[in-house]
Amino acid sequence: MKRGIHPEYRPIVYRDRAADFAFLTRSTATSDQTVEWIDGNTYPVVDVQISSASHPFWTGRQRLVDSAGRVERFRARYARHGARRPR
Fold this sequence. Notes:
With 87 residues, this protein is α+β, with helices and mostly antiparallel strands. The chain has two helices and four strands.
């Protein structure tokens, strides 16, 4: 690996404020904000909108989708075309 051409790879905290969840990892991401971690050290922090702590796939909390309403709109939209007879 050539020296001096790669970004710095260092510890950083990713924080999901919606789920009150944070984790320490290593990354090349940068941030002006810092946070004091559990170990007493200060690390840069990146706020993310969604993480495994708040994503419906990982939490099992799915949003309810109004599929019945969609089906009814579809039927109403194409009801005026009438049923076509097969040839």
